[in-house]
Amino acid sequence: MNEANQQPDTKLGLYYVSAMNETGRKWVPLLGPFRDNHAAALAKVDDVRKLACDLDPRGTWWSYGTVRIDYQDSPPQGRLNGHFADVHTAISAH
Questions:
Q1: Number of compact structural domains in the chain
Q2: What's the whole-number average pLDDT of the chain?
């Protein structure tokens, strides 16, 4: 589904822009968490996909989208958070 046309999820939780590797057996949080804000994660999917492919040519073979997990005391941090200053600042504020 095209993220631009996807209706944001309204469930509470931690949202990420994520990638699934070419084998389909491992997901990686690339950007986030976005607390209770699926729309913000959806809005960044294309930017994250472009950057991931620029950083690693294997990124062309990955699948990109969003994922939600339950709240955690020490949630995973997106591997590309440092490349997105606006998101990094918002995440650090929580």
A1: 1
A2: 89
Give the whole-angstrom CA distance, residue 12 versus residue 26.
24
Tell me how far apart the alpha carbons of residues 9 and 89 are, in angstroms, rounded to a whole number.
23
- At residue 5 the predicted structure's pLDDT band, cuts being 50, 70 and 90, is confident
Domain of 60 in residue numbering reads as 3-92
Please give the Cα distance from 59 to 52 (Å, whole number). Answer: 6
- Residues in a beta bridge with 15: 34, 68
Kindly state the percentage of the chain with pLDDT values over 90: 73
Q: Model-level pTM?
A: 0.85
Q: DSSP secondary structure string, the chain?
A: --GGGPPPP---SEEEEEEE-TTSS-EEEEEEEEET-HHHHHHHHHHHHHHHHHH-GGGGGSEEEEEEE---SS----TTGGG-HHHHHHHHT-
